[in-house]
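Let us practice reading a record.
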Amino acid sequence: GFKMLKRINFAYLVSRVGRTLWAMDILKKIKKLCISAFCEKYLNAEEMITVYDRITNIFLYFVTAAIIAQILSVNIGIAISSVLSLGGLGTIILSLASKSVAEQLVSGIGLSTSGQFVEGEKIKLGDGTKGRIFKIGVTHVELRLSDETIVRIPNSQIFDQRIVNLSRMHRNQVKQTLRFRYEDIDKMPIVTEEIKAEIMASCPKLIKMNRPFRVHWRGIEKDHLEVVVDCRFNIPPTGTARWDNRQEVLEAIYRAVKRCGVEFARPSFSVESDCKVAEER
């Protein structure tokens, strides 16, 4: 063992490894400048630069590690094949892991270049998940839900779903189902017209042209008359403005109903009991 150590030129070995690391550091800086120049024309340039820089760093680190391993193999006599050989099962596990990582990286690149969302925007996924983009990572996206919970979703799962960017939408729908009593059935045509007129007068953001604005008596149910209010507004579907506008619509509906002298129907409940009274002998 000591004879082998004497044959090793440690100064030369350290020099070659040091030069390799120095070259890697220079390449990292040049690489980032090139990525920045390429991505500056996109709206989400900052996020794209971050993702591309991290992905290319992984590749650069791998190449550097391979070069250093080769230097050690030549100068010390360590066989790379014997170090990296993991056997049949190990090779299968490594292949599956590499495939999963590669899938996440490719999906991350697709999400970054598509420009569908950036950090800080609110999105809705095809499975119903809704939240604000907290962080876009190399292999996953962190989504902040309405209850402040942070959810980490793999890039591949997001990439395969439909995505609605709520932050880039400028219109909002308000739809409300109303229940009225049978005693007021003769007043339904007047009620629908009054509700429509009151919403038009009270809600300045209402879209009156090219979009549906309906107040209709839709059904005669078992215990009530059903009226549906369906309207659109030039208001984003997120934030406080959305809920303030919905409240204005509900207040307008209430004023119109009160003016017509009708009342809302109360929900009816049916209670079933399985209790049995024992007969006295």
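A brief commentary: The two ends are 101 Å apart (CA to CA).
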